Amino acid sequence: MSSIREQILSTIVTVLNGATVAGSNIFRERETPISRDMVPAIVVTPEEETDRLINQLCNECTLMVSIGIYTRGDPADQIADPIATAMHTILMTNHSILALVIQVKKNSSKWEQHEADQTAGVLTMSYQFRYLHTVADITTIL
User: Minimal CA–CA distance to 114: which of 4, 57, 34, 7?
Assistant: First the structure.
């Protein structure tokens, strides 16, 4: 079985697929640049995971995930907004995600624009997913 971390990341990609105007352009940790014909697109990237021992049997983990929304057009941030709004609602209310975690929290948003024939923009939203697992097994949710 996959780690809870991997279950969370896979579930995010699955539930976002087709749920926004980005359609099926949902990727995990994409290193290849997003091409013009692939936007809008969403890229899900794990950033950091911290652990805190609750007791001898239970560990609390906090998984930080950045989700980039790639757009093209003017203004790029305005084009990203309906995607971000739909994505946020999904992440905060989806039963498959909520079954894996004890809390979902949005931490930050960052906008970047790059000049091109149409402005290429990236809205990166940072989310925190907290979950519990047994100390001996990172695949078992508590």
Answer: 34
Q: Which domains are delineated in the chain?
A: 4-141 (3.30.70.1700)
CA distances from 135 to 2, 85, 103, 140 (A): 16, 36, 19, 9
Give the SS3 label for residue 17. Answer: coil
The answer to whether residues 86 and 68 touch, using CB atoms and an 8 Å cutoff, is: no
Q: What is the pTM of this model?
A: 0.93
8 A C-beta contact, residue 139 and residue 3:
yes
Say which residue the tokens 């899900």 belong to: 44
Per-residue pLDDT tens digits for 20-39? 999 999 999 887 888 888 89
